[in-house]
Write a structure and sequence with these properties.
single chain, 229 residues, 6-stranded mixed β-sheet, 7 helices, 25% strand, binds adenosine-5'-triphosphate, ATP-binding
Length: 229
């Protein structure tokens, strides 16, 4: 589903590559943690999958496509197949919970009927039943992240990328978010989550790809993470 073939990414005039000869393959339906210290290259990995950046050397394949070869005009359509969540939620502050999730369907031109049918189901999946009319400022951080996840998956993407989704949340709330991500993964979505939260990684025991200064230093099934080297 995601394949990096000897990928190096050098930003502008920097000397050390953000990613350095990375080769990994993530299969359809996997749940993978991407771990490493701040600056190890996790966000760069995610931006390369989304084609927000392109590889300096090597190739990134997503769902069978070499992302560097996708013409600019097709990039928006390509990105629709990928849901993304961030540490800082990025909700629309003047839209309700329902409105935030519905908006992701509206921009694709989905019908009002489809939106009315789909959004409540997704809100139920993320554990926000009954909160559809709230505005983001009326929600806890964990609830806001649930809205962001609902918005990211409402169009049924094949892949969900999560960049430090629990970075702003306390441990208990974080575990609730992890349960939501596991449910989404069980429904068939490939999940890649960047984190440096060892407690979460060690609790879930999923695949762990560790980056250090842009290089893969460990790739283990059911791995653990004891913090940056
Ligand atoms: N646009 C850019 N221009 C120059 N250097 C960059 C750029 N983006 C990232 N870098 C550098 O590339 C390296 C990897 O950064 P990246 O953001 O991928 O790390 P990260 O593991 O996601 O870190 P964090 O956990 O802090 O988000 C860092 O040295 C960073 O300073």
């Amino acid at each position: 589903m995601i394949r990096f073939d000897n990928v190096t990414k050098v930003h502008g005039d920097t000397s050390h590559p953000a990613l350095d000869g990375v080769s990994v393959e993530i299969d359809r339906g996997e749940f993978t943690f991407l771990v490493g210290a701040s600056g190890s290259g996790k966000s760069t990995f995610i931006r390369l999958v989304l084609r927000e950046e392109t590889a300096s050397r090597g190739a990134v394949h997503v769902a069978g496509q070499n992302v560097s070869a996708i013409p600019a005009w097709r990039v928006p359509r390509f990105r629709r197949g990928i849901g993304v969540v961030f540490q800082d939620f990025r909700l629309l502050p003047n839209k309700t919970v329902f409105g935030n999730v519905a908006f992701a369907m509206q921009v694709l031109g989905r019908s009002r009927t489809a939106i009315r049918q789909t959004v409540p189901v997704v809100l139920e999946t993320v554990g926000l039943h009954g909160k559809d009319g709230r505005f983001p400022h009326e929600l806890s951080g964990g609830e806001q992240q649930r809205v962001a996840i609902a918005r990211a998956v409402v169009n049924r993407p094949a892949i969900l990328l999560a960049d430090e989704p629990t970075g702003n949340l306390d441990p208990t709330t974080s575990m609730g978010i992890m349960n939501v991500l596991e449910t989404i993964n069980q429904n068939g979505t490939t999940v890649v989550m960047a984190t440096h939260d060892g407690a979460i990684v060690n609790e879930l025991r999923r695949r762990v790809i560790e980056l250090d200064h842009g290089a893969v230093v460990r790739d283990e099934a059911e791995g653990i993470y004891e913090g940056a080297r």
